[in-house]
Specification:
With about 240 residues, the chain is mainly α. About 45% of the residues lie in helices and about 0% in strands. Bound molecules: heme C.
Length: about 240
């Protein structure tokens, strides 16, 4: 009773402030009461120096082979081996010893089962039957532009299935460089060898050293000149007909 009486004596302005005053008060508590840990957390401003990293930079370089989303990577020749619809003749990566070593590695993994270690088309798969793989030492394939090889690896060729999903473009070119080296290795003349080594070669017996028993997988048996595919044997002939 007494309380109510006292209130009655308060001015209407004061009552107004009391009635609405809790809103800014609440806001004040919210704003000042919040922790600012996230805002004030230890962090680097853009390009700020760092004592943590050896090079003193807080901005780190992207890891190797990072691809920016908007980077234009597509080089038509590199990706297709074609230029204006025609197969190209140059290998668009530097052909170094490293490239050839890589080419050999990827070739040995992917192509040897059919085309053989030396590329004569007499790999193990074919020996078991089926369609004869191409012999890379045929006159035709020795002079076929590299772009065609790239196209065959990428898209397949008649009975040969494509390898685009398995072999990266750079590795496809490395394989081609290696196939070119294989081709040269089987058709090199003495003039291609440095002069000081020519004598050494000439002094060696001309007969090839026979393979140890059971090692005829080397694929070193030369195909008759101009022949595209290996000789058919009764066994694989049977396979091919199935
Ligand atoms: C599973 C067996 C198989 C594998 C593995 C294989 N090939 Fe072939 N390849 C073939 C066959 C079979 C042909 C012949 C296709 C035809 O003429 O119908 C052929 C043909 C080719 C040709 C000749 C195309 C032409 O113009 O005559 C090239 C070049 C070639 N392969 C490259 C490769 C390379 C490089 C690899 C490894 C990346 C590879 N092949 C792996 C089976 C294979």
């Amino acid at each position: 009773m007494q309380l109510r009486n006292r209130n009655r004596h308060r001015s209407p302005q004061l009552m107004q402030v009391l009635r609405t005053g809790w809103i800014p008060l609440l806001l004040l508590i919210f704003i000042t009461g919040c922790h600012r840990d996230m805002y004030d957390q230890p962090k680097y401003e853009p390009l700020e120096a760092s004592t943590f990293f050896e090079d003193g930079r807080s901005a780190r370089k992207p890891v190797d082979n990072t691809v920016a989303v908007d980077e234009v990577l597509y080089d038509e020749y590199f990706m297709t081996g074609m230029r204006d619809g025609a197969v190209g003749t140059e290998i668009p990566i530097p052909v170094t010893e490293e490239t050839l070593a890589r080419g050999q590695e990827v070739y040995n993994i992917n192509c040897v089962p059919c085309h053989g270690l030396a590329g004569y088309g007499n790999g193990m798969v074919w020996r078991r039957g089926g369609v004869p793989p191409a012999n890379f030492h045929s006159d035709r394939l020795r002079t076929t532009p590299v772009g065609h090889f790239y196209d065959v690896i990428t898209n397949g060729y008649r009975y040969m299935y494509p390898y685009a999903h398995k072999i990266a473009p750079e590795d496809r070119w490395a394989i081609i460089a290696y196939i070119r080296a294989l081709q040269l290795s089987q058709h090199a003349t003495l003039d291609a060898v440095p002069a000081d080594m020519q004598q050494e070669l000439q002094s060696q017996p001309s007969e090839a050293t026979p393979m140890p028993e059971g090692q005829d997988m080397s694929g070193a048996t030369p195909m008759p000149e101009g022949q595209d595919t290996p000789e058919a044997t009764p066994e694989n002939q049977q396979g091919a007909e199935q």
